[in-house]
């Protein structure tokens, strides 16, 4: 069924500011109710061509001449139609879809729906971010506390971010696609704030494996698969860079394909709790017969990132890593 979308309702429900935040647009300066900065659409060098009025919810770029409302902005960023932009906003921000046959909003005749030309973006990938966050502090005490040394933090581009946007005040972790392009930042909260990890709306975690591009570049036939970013960072730091993280405890079909295309052998090293063990069994069952497989028993109640580097090396060292 074709989804029906009410443009006006979406425009009312979502502010331009919220959309800019979800795109993690950095470097925008606020002057009263206006934001000014580099244009995230044409990605030019000038840092003042883009203006957004937060009171009017409109934007304008003096360099590329892009202008309009939230729908135009999303359409320009996603290279999609206005209709597709509205559907995405509806989904990202959880705006309820108007009900068919509702008294207040009669459905247009099928003929006029048919006139809306859909220009769908290629499904199945997260578009690369048009920027990288700058001024990220790789020497933040939180990283030290989690056992991440400065060299690892710098190599992965992680650190504490104080700039504007959704990631402000969090440890930011760049997530790169298989080509090494940044497709999102994950923001780890400090001081127990919720959510523990923030990801931009619309980002599809199931399409990526954290650190896949580095693991693949090692040219090993084996890959170690873990749950979390920090598990991955610690194992990399222990001298085993052929490691990738699921960013959760389930393996999506896309992640499965990505692993099987590149590696002959998967070493599963999920958390040592009930959920981790169950996930490990489920994933092992799926991969069984499709690649060589080993399952590492992480001690009860522990996560790989909590183990000493020596313990990681001992657990993994027994397995042949070709
Ligand atoms: Zn522009």
Radius of gyration: 22 Å
The class by helix and strand makeup works out as alpha+beta
Largest beta-sheet details: 5 strands, antiparallel
Strand order of the largest sheet: 1-2-3-4-5
Number of strands: 13
Query: Span between N and C termini?
Result: 49 Å
Q: Strand fraction band? A: 15-25%
The percentage helix is 25-40%
Task: Give me the strand/helix succession.
Answer: HHEEEEEHHHHHEEEEHEHEHEHEH
Shape: globular
Short description:
The protein has 322 residues and is of the alpha+beta class. It has 12 helices and 13 strands.
Task: Describe this entry's structure for a reader.
- It is a single chain.
- The protein starts with 6 loop residues before the first helix and ends in a 5-residue tail after the last helix.
- The strands form 3 sheets. A 5-stranded antiparallel sheet has the order 1-2-3-4-5, with helices on one face.
- It has 12 helices and 13 strands.
- It has about 325 residues and is of the alpha+beta class.
- It is globular and about 60 Å long.
- It has helices at about 5-15, 15-20, 70-80, 80-90, 110-115, 140-145, 150-155, 210-215, 230-235, 255-260, 275-285, 310-315; strands spanning about 30, 35, 50-55, 60, 65-70, 160, 170-175, 180-190, 195-200, 220-225, 245, 265-270, 290-295.
- Mean pLDDT is about 85; it is low at about 100-120.
- Strand 3 and strand 4 form a beta hairpin.
